[in-house]
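So, can you check this one?
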Amino acid sequence: MQRKERRLRLRWREEVPAGKAFMHPDTMNELSISSDIEVVIAGKKKLYFKAMPNESVPRGEVWCNTDELKSNGVADNSIATIRAKRVE
Protein backbone atom coordinates (compact mmCIF):
# COMPACT_ATOMS: atom_id res chain seq x y z
CA MET A 1 0.00 0.00 0.00
CA GLN A 2 1.36 3.39 -0.97
CA ARG A 3 1.69 6.04 1.71
CA LYS A 4 -0.04 9.39 1.15
CA GLU A 5 2.27 12.37 0.93
CA ARG A 6 2.12 16.14 0.39
CA ARG A 7 4.56 18.95 -0.18
CA LEU A 8 4.37 21.32 2.77
CA ARG A 9 6.42 24.24 4.07
CA LEU A 10 8.77 23.67 7.01
CA ARG A 11 8.79 26.59 9.44
CA TRP A 12 11.21 27.35 12.25
CA ARG A 13 9.49 27.72 15.62
CA GLU A 14 11.26 28.14 18.99
CA GLU A 15 8.25 26.80 20.94
CA VAL A 16 8.43 23.35 19.32
CA PRO A 17 10.45 20.83 21.38
CA ALA A 18 13.36 19.06 19.66
CA GLY A 19 12.34 15.84 17.94
CA LYS A 20 8.72 16.97 17.54
CA ALA A 21 6.77 18.60 14.70
CA PHE A 22 3.48 20.48 15.01
CA MET A 23 0.90 19.91 12.24
CA HIS A 24 -2.73 20.85 11.71
CA PRO A 25 -4.98 17.90 12.77
CA ASP A 26 -6.82 17.91 9.40
CA THR A 27 -3.51 17.54 7.53
CA MET A 28 -2.53 14.68 9.82
CA ASN A 29 -5.84 12.91 9.09
CA GLU A 30 -5.50 13.49 5.34
CA LEU A 31 -2.03 11.90 5.31
CA SER A 32 -3.01 9.10 7.76
CA ILE A 33 -0.39 10.25 10.28
CA SER A 34 -0.85 8.90 13.79
CA SER A 35 2.58 9.40 15.37
CA ASP A 36 5.85 9.70 13.40
CA ILE A 37 6.49 11.53 10.14
CA GLU A 38 9.19 11.33 7.49
CA VAL A 39 10.37 14.66 6.04
CA VAL A 40 12.22 14.52 2.70
CA ILE A 41 13.95 17.69 1.49
CA ALA A 42 14.97 17.92 -2.19
CA GLY A 43 14.79 14.12 -2.50
CA LYS A 44 18.06 13.79 -0.57
CA LYS A 45 17.81 14.71 3.08
CA LYS A 46 15.50 12.64 5.33
CA LEU A 47 14.47 13.68 8.83
CA TYR A 48 12.09 12.00 11.25
CA PHE A 49 9.86 13.70 13.83
CA LYS A 50 7.10 12.82 16.28
CA ALA A 51 3.99 14.59 14.93
CA MET A 52 1.81 16.55 17.36
CA PRO A 53 -1.60 18.01 16.39
CA ASN A 54 -1.89 21.79 16.84
CA GLU A 55 -4.88 23.85 15.62
CA SER A 56 -2.83 27.06 15.29
CA VAL A 57 -0.59 25.60 12.54
CA PRO A 58 -1.79 26.51 9.01
CA ARG A 59 -2.79 23.51 6.89
CA GLY A 60 0.10 23.95 4.43
CA GLU A 61 2.85 24.11 7.07
CA VAL A 62 4.77 21.91 9.49
CA TRP A 63 6.40 23.62 12.48
CA CYS A 64 9.71 22.19 13.73
CA ASN A 65 12.34 23.20 16.28
CA THR A 66 14.52 26.05 14.97
CA ASP A 67 17.86 24.73 16.24
CA GLU A 68 17.18 21.20 14.96
CA LEU A 69 16.37 22.40 11.43
CA LYS A 70 19.35 24.79 11.39
CA SER A 71 21.75 22.03 12.49
CA ASN A 72 20.46 19.86 9.63
CA GLY A 73 20.92 22.68 7.10
CA VAL A 74 17.21 23.29 6.48
CA ALA A 75 16.18 26.90 5.78
CA ASP A 76 12.99 28.47 7.14
CA ASN A 77 10.07 28.21 4.69
CA SER A 78 11.63 25.25 2.83
CA ILE A 79 9.29 22.96 0.91
CA ALA A 80 9.51 19.27 1.85
CA THR A 81 7.60 16.07 1.15
CA ILE A 82 5.78 14.94 4.29
CA ARG A 83 4.44 11.42 4.84
CA ALA A 84 3.80 8.96 7.66
CA LYS A 85 6.90 7.07 8.75
CA ARG A 86 6.97 3.51 7.40
CA VAL A 87 6.06 0.95 10.05
CA GLU A 88 8.33 -2.07 10.02
The mean pLDDT is 94. The CA atoms of residues 24 and 57 lie 5 Å apart. Residues 5-84 form a domain with the Barwin-like endoglucanases fold (CATH 2.40.40.20).
